[in-house]
C-alpha cells in the first residue's frame, strides 16, 4: 500500500527514535530501509540470543516484530508525536536460525489515534528466506 | 488453580530448561518461584534494556511474559517432552520502570497438545507494584 | 479487583447499551449481572448457533467474550461516553455444549483512552462448568 | 501465495463443511470463492446483526474472519481430517456498514499440526471497499 507521510522528515525522525532504543543495540539489531508505512530490521544471530535449543529466542523475534511494526507506524505520524505499543500478537511459524534475521513491518491502517500494523520475521539460511513469525498489533499516537 | 504435575521432577526440569536460554541471561532475568502451572521471573532494569524514552523495552517485557507463561506450561509437561511457543499476545498497560520487574505466568488449561497460559508483568517502584503488561498465549508439547 | 464507577448510573447505562445490540437478541443472549468492571452474559445453546460438529459456533463464543469484556469496560466509563472494541484475542479451550453458556468479562485496567479486559466463557453441562474460551482485548472510550 | 492442496476434492470438502455451520446460515453468510489456501465469505448487513450504533456487530465480523481463515486452512487439509480453531485475534479498523461485507481468509503457513492464517473483512458501501477488520489466527488439524 502507498502511504503519504504526514511529516516529510519521517525517515530522520524514525532513525533518531531507533537510535534511542538501547535494547535494540544490545541485541545487535540494525535499522534497514524505512519508507512511508514500512520498516525493516536486520539481526545477525549470536549465541547469547538463544532459547533452550539454540535457535534465536522468541523474545528476540517478538522484539523485532514489535519494533519493525512500530516504526512502520511511526513513519506516518505527524512531527513531534510520540508512539507507544498498545498490543501485539505474534504467531511463531518456524524455528529461527541462519545467517540473518529480517523483520519487516507495514501499516494496515493509519488512524488518528491508533495505527494497525502487521509484521513478518524471516530467517535467511544458506541464502534461503523462511518466514518464522507473523505479528499483528496496534500502536497509539501521543500528540505533541 | 491447582495443577498436578505429570513429572514429579518438574522443578528441576524447568530450571534446567531455563539455564539453556542464553538470551535470558543476556538480559539479566532470573528464574524465581516455580510451582505446578506457575512460574515467576525477576529482572532488574538496566540502561541497556530501554526503549526510546528510557523505560524497559517492550521486547524485554514480551520476552518475560512469553517465558514466564512458557515455563508455567512446561512445568506440567511429561518427562522428556520439549516445548515451543505457538503464539502470544501482549497488551501493554503502563510504562515499565522501577527497581524490579516481575513476570508471573500461569496455566489456564493444560491439554494433550496445547497449553493455554496467561502472564502478567509488574513493575515495582518505590515498593509499589504496578501491572504493566498482560499476556495470553498457547504452547505446544513436543512428545519425547 | 474492586473498581469505582465514574458514572453512578453505570448499570442502567450498560443495560441500555446492551438493549440496542440487535445481534445479541438474535442469538438469544441475555445480560446477567453487571457490577463495576464486571459483566456476565448467558446463552442457551440452540441448533441454529452451531459449527460443523454441532457445538456452539466459535463466532458465538467470540461474540459473547467480546461483549462481556466490552460491557465490563463500559461499566467504568464516564456518563455520555461511547465505546468501541479496538481488538480482541480469543483462545478456544474446549468444544462448547450443554444447557447453558456463560461469559464473564472483567477489567484488567481502566485507562483514560483504553481499557484492557479479560473474559472467560464457560459451558455448563449436567451442572458442571467447563472453561471453553479465554479472551483478552482492548476497548476505546469515545468521549461525549 | 500458491498452495498445492493435499486433497484434490478440497473445494467440495470445504463446501460440505460450511453447509453444516448452521450459525453461518442463521446470519445469512454465504460461501464465495474457494481456492487452495484462500476462501471468501459474503454477507448482506441486516438490522438484526447490529451493535449499539447500528453497524454490523463485531461478533459477526469476528465470525466471518474466523470462518474465512478457517476454511482457507481447511482447503489444504488431507482428506478426512477435521479442523478446530486454536485462537484468533481481530483488530477492528472501521465501523462496518454498507451493501455487503466480504471476508477473505488466506493461509500464511500450512503445517502438519497447525496452520496460521490471516483474514481481512471489507465493507462495500456505494461500491467503495473499506477494510474494517484484520485477523490472524491458528487452526489445528484433527487427523482422520
Structure characterization notes:
Four copies of one chain form a homotetramer. Chain A is α+β, with helices and mostly antiparallel strands and about 140 residues long. The first copy, chain A, has one domain: Hotdog Thioesterase (Thiol Ester Dehydrase, Chain A), CATH 3.10.129. In chain A, a hairpin with a 2-residue loop joins β1 and β2. In chain A, strands 1-2-4-5-6-3 form a six-stranded antiparallel beta sheet, with helices on one face. The first copy, chain A, is built from three helices and six strands. Chains in contact: A-B, A-C, A-D, B-C, B-D, C-D. Chains A and B meet through α2, α3 and β3 of A and α2, α3 and β3 of B.
Amino acid at each position: 500500500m502507498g502511504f503519504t507521510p504526514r511529516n516529510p522528515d519521517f525517515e530522520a525522525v524514525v532513525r533518531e527514535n531507533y537510535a534511542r532504543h538501547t535494547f535494540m543495540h544490545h541485541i545487535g539489531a540494525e535499522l534497514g530501509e524505512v519508507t512511508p508505512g514500512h520498516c525493516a530490521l536486520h539481526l545477525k544471530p549470536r549465541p547469547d540470543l538463544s532459547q533452550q535449543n539454540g535457535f534465536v529466542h522468541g523474545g528476540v523475534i517478538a522484539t523485532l516484530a514489535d519494533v519493525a511494526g512500530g516504526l512502520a507506524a511511526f513513519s506516518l505520524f505527524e512531527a513531534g508525536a510520540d508512539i507507544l505499543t498498545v498490543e501485539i500478537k505474534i504467531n511463531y511459524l518456524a524455528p529461527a536460525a541462519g545467517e540473518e534475521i529480517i523483520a519487516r513491518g507495514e501499516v494496515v491502517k493509519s488512524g488518528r489515534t491508533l495505527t494497525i500494523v502487521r509484521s513478518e520475521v524471516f530467517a535467511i539460511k544458506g541464502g534461503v528466506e523462511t518466514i518464522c513469525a507473523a505479528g499483528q498489533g496496534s500502536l497509539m499516537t501521543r500528540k505533541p
